[in-house]
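Propose amino acids for all 221 sites.
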C-alpha cells in the first residue's frame, strides 16, 4: 500500500471514530435536539484537529442527525413525528421483507441466536440493569432478523434508520413504566411467533411491534 493510501485510510478511520462518538451522544440524548455542536469543542475534547470533526459532522448531516445552518453552525436535528412515523414504517418493511425471505428455511441454530438474546434480556430485567443494556439487546434481536436476508442494502438502510429510532426511544422511554420487563416480554412473544414459521403471522407481529413503539411515544415529543 502506498503511503498516501495508508494516510487516507487512517484519516477515514479517525473520521468514522469521531462520527460514531458524536452519533452515540445524539442517540443517548447527551446532545439534545436543537443543541449546537461546536467543532472546536469536539476537537478539543477528543484531542484532534477540526478537519475530521467537520467531516464527521458532514457524514451525520447525510444521516439526518445534524443540520448545518450557513454562517451559524451545526445543530442536532429536532425529532419530527411525521418523519419518525415513516422511519418506523420503513424499518418494519425491511424486517418483514427479511422474514418473508428467510423464515421458511431458518435452522434451530438461527432461532438459538434469538433465544440467547431473549435470555440475556430476561437476565438484565431480573437484575434491574440499566435500560441501555437491554436496549442494546433489543437492537441485536432486530439486526439479527435483518442480517438473515443477506441483502446489504437492507443492512445499510436499517442501520441508518436505527440511529433515529434509538434516539426516539431514548427520549420517550422514561415515560414508559417497567420498560425492561416490557422489552423482554415483547421479544419473547415475537420469538415464539417466529418459531411457528407462519410468514403472514410473523410479519404482522413484527410490524405491529415496531409501529407500537412509535405510537407509544410520538404524541408527547
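Proposal:
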Amino acid at each position: 500500500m502506498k503511503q498516501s493510501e495508508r494516510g487516507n485510510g487512517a484519516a477515514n478511520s479517525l473520521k468514522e471514530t469521531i462520527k460514531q462518538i458524536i452519533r452515540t451522544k445524539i442517540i443517548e440524548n447527551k446532545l439534545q435536539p436543537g443543541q449546537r455542536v461546536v467543532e472546536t469543542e469536539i476537537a478539543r475534547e477528543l484531542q484532534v484537529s477540526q478537519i475530521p470533526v467537520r467531516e464527521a459532522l458532514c457524514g451525520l448531516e447525510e444521516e439526518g442527525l445534524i443540520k448545518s445552518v450557513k454562517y451559524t453552525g451545526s445543530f442536532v436535528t429536532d425529532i419530527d413525528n411525521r418523519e419518525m412515523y415513516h422511519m418506523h414504517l420503513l424499518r418494519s418493511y425491511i424486517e418483514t421483507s427479511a422474514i418473508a425471505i428467510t423464515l421458511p428455511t431458518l435452522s434451530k441454530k438461527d432461532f438459538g441466536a434469538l433465544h440467547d438474546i431473549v435470555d440475556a434480556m430476561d437476565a438484565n430485567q431480573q437484575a434491574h440493569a440499566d435500560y441501555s443494556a437491554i436496549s442494546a439487546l433489543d437492537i441485536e434481536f432486530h439486526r439479527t432478523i435483518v442480517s438473515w436476508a443477506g441483502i446489504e442494502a437492507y443492512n445499510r438502510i436499517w442501520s441508518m434508520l436505527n440511529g433515529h429510532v434509538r434516539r426516539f426511544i431514548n427520549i420517550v422511554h422514561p415515560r414508559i413504566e417497567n420498560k425492561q420487563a416490557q422489552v423482554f416480554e415483547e421479544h419473547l412473544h415475537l420469538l415464539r411467533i417466529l418459531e411457528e414459521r407462519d410468514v403472514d403471522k410473523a410479519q404482522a407481529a413484527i410490524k405491529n411491534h415496531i409501529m407500537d413503539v412509535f405510537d407509544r411515544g410520538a404524541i408527547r415529543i
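The CA atoms of residues 121 and 127 lie 10 Å apart. The mean pLDDT is 89.
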